[in-house]
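Schema walk-through. Below, the input block comes first and the output block second. Nothing else is stored per chain. Lengths vary across the set, and this one has 305 residues.
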Amino acid sequence: MAKRTFQKNNLKWIHISQPSQQDFDHLKDAFDFHPLVSESIVSPTLHPALEEYKDHLFLILHFPIIFREKVANLAMEVDFIITKNTIITITYQPYKRLEEFFDKIAENPETQKRFQNHTAGKLVYAIIDWLLNYLINDIDVLGVEITRIEDEIFETPSHQIVEDISHARRDILDFRRIITATQPVLEILPQAAIKFYGDDMDPYFADLVTTEHRIRHLVENHRETIEALNATHESLLSSRTSSVVGVLTVFSAILLPLNFIASLWGTNYEYLPLSHHPYGFWILSGAMVFIAAGLVAIFRHKRWL
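--- output ---
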């Protein structure tokens, strides 16, 4: 429900957050956009897209918002309606990162000088580049979390690590899913920008493609790392479980003959060996200790203990 405008010479940027029907009606009256554009901006779009028209471009991009508080992540949609000297950006939820860049442009004369005597193309590049570089910061935060998980796996293993790994995998998969859908649009954007603004824009929008490739490469590295850590953690848990089960099995094997002897000599028969012997109890106990010690020695020799 917020509309903000920045204008410097012929360059104009209109940013609308959570647009109302009144905002849509105003855009329709003030600008001669294609009817398909007017229809598309009424509600969020599931997929990124780029549409070229005679005197304007319509660009839809999605940017992942990763929450480290273990809640559901978001795909933040930003719609760009681009003319030679005017940019209109629309977000359907408050997007602090974009509003932060708007403040930087509107309030800093030094920043404004970068866009003087330029078409809107350079400002479009600057907006997208700003948002993409924020994603690199998000990836760095994910990298720190992965490093922490790796340290805990080998130093202080706990059941909490299973949950931490699951949340990190979800964050990386959400990030990857959103940025992968954006890739085809960013790759064709330089061609559209050159046709719309001229060859001068080629290095700028080619740089966006390079940044997007770098982001995908980093995300893939994190995905492979967290999957390897998950497999390692499962192997360590399996090894520890097998070790515990092995020790319990060995002790069961030691106690089994002892229980058999104790049960046999505990029957109520009148004639049992050593039942009337004055040292029968001690002889039987010594025999059981000897059997247990012999079994322990055998298991140690076979490295079962």
